[in-house]
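Notes from hallway chat w/ T.B., transcribed later so I don't forget. T.B. wanted the structure written out for a chain they're using in a teaching module, and asked if we could keep both sequence and structure tokens in one place. Agreed to drop them here.
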Amino acid sequence: MDWSLLQYGFMHKALLAGLLGGIACALTGVLVVTMRISAIGICVAHAAFAGALLGILLGAGPLGPAFLTSFLVAGILGPLTDKADVAPDTVVGILFSTMLGLAFLFLGLMTGPRTEALDLFWGSILTATWFDIKVLAAVTAALLLGLALFFKEIQAVLCHRAVALAVGVPATLVYYAMLFSVGAAVAASLRSIGGLLIYGLIINPAAAAYQLSYSLKRIFVLACLFAVGSSWGGLLLATVLDVPAGAMIVLLSTGIFVAATLLSPKSPRAASFLHRLQTAFSGRVSARDKARENTP
């Protein structure tokens, strides 16, 4: 790799986008994985994608409409999944197919070059602008602040929503805020990672962190480390191999999840293997120390 690329401004912006986008996706990913609302998260992600395409079609730009549609669908999904007579999965499936249909409709209605629209499929982190960085920074700061201020309430809802509501926690409000946070993270990261790939960066690092710890705080930290590592590592691999960066970021995050699953202390086989490895290492260290003590 030509390390001189790191001196250029576009690479600095790409690394910043990977840092901020990775943290934002990881924080919301932990919420999605722990609440087991992956289908809802996918639906919100495709809503942001459809909104971005609508913005391009109307000449308004992708970012604003992506935020609006993701917030709109998150606001619809919350009450419907709580109160609708049909199963929540059915509601999510209907909205998901609707958003996907609208996305391809907007793409088909575009005239002329569709480069900007097609870039939203797989993302273009190397072309991130300072405006994109500012939006990502604002969303990431808001997510970190909300997590710091309301961590106990969030933890209570993640553990058991009904019990949290029974003890006085505004569980419904916290739940809806989680959905809106997913929408914000997706919309802010859409141009960097891509509409068809962004959800992999939300789910994979959080799922990997979940395999390695029982502590919610530790899961948040590990998820952020995995997501940022995937973003930076995928960016560097894409530069070396001359392939789309968004694809490499998601594939690397998948590799991290596979490794975390194989080494998870929650898996009986992995725990047994790690225990044997630790015992063997401790035995070697003890034998070496004894040999040193017996050496005149």
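Follow-up for T.B.: Residues 265-296 form one domain. Might be a good example for the class.
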